[in-house]
Task: structure prediction
Amino acid sequence: MAELDGLLDALLDRVAVELADRVERRLDRLAAERPDGPKALDVKQAAVRLGVSPTTMHELVISGQVPSVKVGRRRLIAASTIDRMLNGASSGQLPATLGHLPARANHRRITPS
Result:
């Protein structure tokens, strides 16, 4: 019986962690999609709003193609910058900030700052 209790506890812990991750991702997505949302987005929120992966967003920021500011340990991007990029893409004009990234072989794995 103790073995079954241990397995059940492990399963419940795993479900709780997965659920917490899903809730966090959903909240990030909702925060990034709100029209009256924050004036500044962290890299993860900006990636969600732009529809790219966080890694790609980091690469765009590090390469200087997307302007950002560092506040403490966080790197923030103006929501208006992402909105301008999206508006330019919807009008058929690819914004200059979405220009060519270096070849994949030259990419480095960038960890969140």
Residues 37 and 92 are 25 Å apart (CA to CA).
